[in-house]
């Protein structure tokens, strides 16, 4: 009798473990693969209890990033180009240098129009890069596009790399891990470790980060051919000697201030962290345009 009970309990445990792994695999797939149509799942803070339960059962829905605004938003002289396989917009400047801009998770080139125009006003040529494909590796493989952008701007007087959120993490990997050369980095809200920022999404749903975050990072990395537990911008930062300006929102629920302070402390070259009061995980140019412009212009003037 006890043997049958033991076998039954073991089978139950195996079934539960298999079900958890299957759900985690599906969640990781949906988080990193875009759909062609339909609305995006709202942020965890905006969901009702019923909606949260549905998301936990089925995963998030992330539409393919599309450009809401086109070349006209950048003004005369803007043109469509490609940086390797990545679509990009190019707008010539006044010879001060080149700024390559990289968007955040599931964001299109349109999300960077304001920042591109701000850099253009400072005399820089700008290249706004969109990450190609119907999926994302959350900055791991996307870092290769940063290297291709550096080659495209090789003849420029200087190269500035600007990124938001995932785009900022992408740049840190490109410079710190892949050896891409640049003159200045301007980074908004980079996460310190992939497993940490995924964990914050669980916390926003009112759930503990363990073990869900680790399972999603494991399966997501496996699906995209890398070890998700090695995707840690705070480690990349320890090999970054390029002068780096970090910009961050004080009330960011996706990346906590202490995590960005850790990146700031790890940087080897000149660095500065500017915290925007009361701002969340939002475009900081929109949160406080005067502070953004003042800090960026002063850093570039160095």
Describe this structure in words.
With 302 residues, the chain is α/β, with parallel strands linked by helices. The protein has 2 domains: 2-62 and 210-217, no CATH class; 71-193 and 231-301, Alpha/Beta hydrolase fold, catalytic domain (Rossmann fold), CATH 3.40.50. The chain is built from 11 helices and 8 strands. It has helices at residues 2-32, 49-58, 113-121, 143-152, 166-176, 194-204, 212-224, 233-237, 257-266, 284-287, 289-301; strands spanning 79-83, 86-91, 98-102, 125-129, 159-164, 184-188, 244-249, 271-276. It has an 8-stranded mixed beta sheet, sandwiched between helices. Strand 1 (79-83) and strand 2 form a beta hairpin. It is elongated. The model has no long low-confidence stretch (mean pLDDT 93).
Write the layout of secondary structure elements.
Blueprint lengths: L1 H31 L16 H10 L20 E5 L2 E6 L6 E5 L10 H9 L3 E5 L13 H10 L6 E6 L1 H11 L7 E5 L5 H11 L7 H13 L8 H5 L6 E6 L7 H10 L4 E6 L7 H4 L1 H13 L1
Parallel strand pairs: 3-4, 3-5, 5-6, 6-7, 7-8
Antiparallel strand pairs: 1-2, 2-4
Number of helices: 11
**Which architecture of the largest domain would the CATH scheme give at its second level?**
3-Layer(aba) Sandwich
Structural class computed from helices and strand pairing: alpha/beta
Annotated CATH topology of the largest domain: Rossmann fold
Strand content: 5-15%
Quick description:
The protein has 302 residues and is an alpha/beta fold. The protein contains 11 helices and 8 strands.
What attributes characterize this protein structure?
Rossmann fold, eight-stranded mixed beta sheet, 302 residues, elongated, 2 domains
């Amino acid at each position: 009798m006890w043997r049958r009970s033991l076998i039954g309990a073991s089978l139950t445990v195996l079934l539960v473990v298999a079900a958890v792994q299957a759900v985690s695999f599906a969640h990781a797939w949906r988080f990193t693969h875009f759909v062609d149509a339909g609305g995006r799942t709202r942020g965890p803070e905006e969901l009702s209890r019923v909606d949260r339960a549905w998301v936990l059962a089925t995963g998030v829905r992330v539409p393919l990033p599309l450009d809401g605004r086109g070349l006209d938003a950048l003004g005369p002289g803007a043109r469509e180009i490609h940086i390797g396989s990545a679509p990009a917009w190019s707008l010539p400047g006044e010879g001060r240098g080149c700024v390559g801009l990289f968007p955040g998770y599931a964001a299109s080139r349109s999300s960077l129009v304001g920042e591109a125009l701000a850099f253009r006003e400072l005399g820089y040529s700008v290249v706004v890069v969109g990450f190609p494909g119907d999926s994302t590796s959350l900055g791991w493989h996307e870092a290769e596009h940063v290297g291709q952008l550096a080659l495209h701007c090789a003849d420029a007087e200087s190269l500035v790399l600007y990124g938001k959120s995932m785009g900022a993490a992408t740049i840190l990997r490109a410079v710190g891990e892949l050896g891409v050369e640049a003159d200045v980095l301007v980074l908004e809200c980079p996460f310190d470790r992939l497993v940490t920022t995924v964990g914050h999404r669980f916390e926003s749903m009112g759930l503990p980060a363990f073990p869900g975050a680790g399972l999603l990072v494991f399966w997501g990395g496996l699906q995209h051919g890398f070890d998700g537990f090695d995707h840690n911008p705070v480690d990349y930062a320890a090999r970054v000697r390029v002068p780096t300006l970090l910009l961050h929102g004080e009330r960011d629920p996706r990346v906590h201030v202490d995590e960005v302070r850790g990146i700031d402390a790890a940087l080897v070259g000149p660095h500065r962290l500017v915290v925007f009061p009361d701002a969340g995980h939002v475009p900081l140019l929109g949160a406080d345009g005067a502070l953004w412009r003042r800090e960026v212009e002063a850093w570039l003037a160095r």
